[in-house]
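Progress report, Aim 2. The chain analyzed during this reporting quarter is listed below.
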Amino acid sequence: MSEDNNSKNFIEMIIDKDLEEGKYDEIHTRFPPEPNGYLHIGHAKAILINYGLAKEYGGKFNLRFDDTNPTKEKTEFVDSIKADVEWLGADWEGRLFFASDYFDQMYEAAVKLIKKGKAYVCDLTADEIKEYRGTFDTPGKNSPYRDRSVEENLELFENMKNGMYADGEKVLRARIDMASPNINMRDPVIYRVAHMSHHNTGDKWCIYPMYDFAHPIEDAIEGVTHSCCTLEFEDHRPLYDWVVSELEYPHPPKQIEFAKMYLTNVVTGKRYIKKLVEDGTVDGWDDPRLVSIAALRRRGFTPSSIQNFVNLCGVSKSQSSVDYGMLEYCIREDLKLSRPRVMAVLDPIKLIIDNYPEGETEYFEVPNNLENESLGSRKVPFSGELYIERDDFMAEPVRKYFRLYPGNEVRLMNAYFVKCTSYETDESGNVTCVHCTYDPDTRQDGREVDRKVKGTIHWVNAATAFPATVRLYENLIDEEKGVYNDDGSLNLNPNSRTVLENCMLEPSLHDAAAYESFQFVRNGFFCVDYKDSEEGHPVFNRVVSLKSSFKIC
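Predicted structure tokens for the chain:
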């Protein structure tokens, strides 16, 4: 959130005005997800905005589940959302609520509206209600059941509660204005019959409130002052205000809308992700190719990187798309100074130093991060048999290739100069081993060397290296074709995940814990996968490459 008046966003300006005018004594916000799927990066923006405002103004922040639709809700989603919000650092301080906590109060609120003549039971079908509602250009027409008496409506509504009607047979509608230019105000449905078991209340209820009726009641009961939501609810605000006004809450909350976060070439729709999961295209809602918060956490993103991303995107009422490269920029900036830089060879071939003393091993003191001395150093073993990357050797080098080839000399990172003398191949002509000699006077420990080399390559010691699985990720979507085909299906990238087995890693990585991340020199930032790693055999997900063409202007 903003630190000075000149840079405050429009929500902060509204809050400042409300406080100055004495409308509220304390700021109280909430994040109200529906537990029908996993949260994604757009939800992270909503979480951090609402929590950030509460923190900025010394107020309170609630986590509340809008669980008014038992057909789609699961305890699994409740648990995942709680984990996501907590991971992002949004502390609800014990104020964890459910819409279902207030079902009794919502029922009484509906009864109050009936008694005021502001709600009625309607027998029209869903299609008939839609037909009667009219269009943007034509007003709606009254339901034939709109003028039922208060007594009849009270009896019918109680019968709805007692399970006397089938799903869809009757609904309770607000009695507002069928000629309103805002379609949401044309006698909206506020209760429907649904003989469904609820994850919190079991079979107590067979009628459930609609979101537009339940949400303002929840806010008012909890003492929320500023109900910040995304722009698609702007046209629903008159109904929100109507509900809190007609129910005569003494301190009505204020709804404020801000622009959603749209990322280029990503999938956020729950329907699409659900299909990807069910088809086995991804290995769950937390597959690292997705942008659910759980997926970003599994891939190796940090809460601070997402906070920085949200701050860079800003808060406005103008819809716009953000380049996915900005999200990658934020995690790259977050990790480059805070993570150790280690050596891992992803496509190994053997390198033998023929003149190195047989059976000898020495250790190099290697800084963990040259740009951050506080991360200290580690000892890295070195001997006459190493592994190097396959593409760090060419039998017939192309122009401007400065790595190993017959007769060329390079620096082994943090170690010695070596010169290639020969190489071995298998029956198919694939290089299996490179032979070199080393110059013991070129040890990289600060001494002067009488010559220079143009290439430096990384390596791991063969005797102490261990094999690991490494997964490289690209965008799940084929960026050249766009997200959707003409038929609405997804344009999937067939190369979105590459799995490399038997990569050779330096021994310091052997006991890396789940979610721990490192920079693999020259290869990118990698994180230990919490789901597929096993003791002694970690699986590493590439978080992001080392460089990108994306720049912050």
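The chain has a mean pLDDT of 94. The longest strand covers residues 417-425. These observations will guide the mutagenesis work planned for the next reporting period.
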